[in-house]
From TrEMBL:
The chain crosses the membrane at residues 14-34, 65-83, 89-112. Keywords: Membrane, Transmembrane, Transmembrane helix. This is Serine protease. It comes from the Bacteria.
């Protein structure tokens, strides 16, 4: 306690911010990992039009305030002995605090990609184009194969046509689905 009392008021301020902010950050982190940290716990009613924005990242949130103060205060403490100019030290703290918010945004964005539904639904391929991989016999007399990209991954599917034979490397349009077999026509 004597060491704390002998500190410069500027350094004490950084410590006054860093200690509670670090405790709150640890609590938020634990709550996030046990599934209780999905919101800030604030139920505010604001009127605005965000054009369908559906994102968990909000610039002005309690979590971002904690992230900013964490970066700001620990930067001030860490560089207090190295940077004598208090204005420069404060500006560096602000920059690092903003960097903490940006890093949190990147982490949230990466986590949201993990929750995306990238499951393949065959009905979603109707009206898409594909390339014939194995020749498709005429008039639904047999099955060929097509390849197409769906949500960033390549799929190989069985295909039939009502028309004439479609040879390999031809481009086709998927016009329907029958029992998981794509019905195609030449483009």
């Amino acid at each position: 306690m004597e060491l704390f009392n002998s500190m410069d008021i500027f350094l004490k301020t950084f410590w006054y911010i860093a200690i509670p902010t670090s405790v709150i950050f640890l609590i938020q982190t634990v709550m996030t990992f046990i599934g209780m940290g999905s919101s800030d716990g604030i139920d505010a009613d604001f009127d605005g039009d965000f054009e369908g924005e559906d994102t968990p990242f909000q610039l002005f949130s309690f979590r971002n305030l904690i992230n900013f103060l964490l970066g700001f205060s620990w930067t001030g403490i860490s560089f207090y002995q190295l940077i004598e100019n208090k204005i420069l030290l404060t500006l560096l703290g602000v920059v690092i605090g903003c960097l903490f918010i940006y890093l949190f945004f990147l982490v949230i964005r990466a986590l949201m990609k993990l929750t995306e539904d990238n499951s393949f639904k065959i009905n979603e391929i109707i009206n898409k184009t594909a390339e014939v991989y194995l020749t498709i016999p005429p008039h639904k007399s047999g099955k060929g194969k097509i390849t197409l990209s769906v949500k960033g991954s390549f799929r190989e599917l069985e295909a039939m046509t009502d028309g004439d034979k479609i040879s390999s490397n031809s481009i086709v349009k998927i016009v329907g689905i029958e029992n998981t077999v794509a019905i195609v026509e030449k483009v």
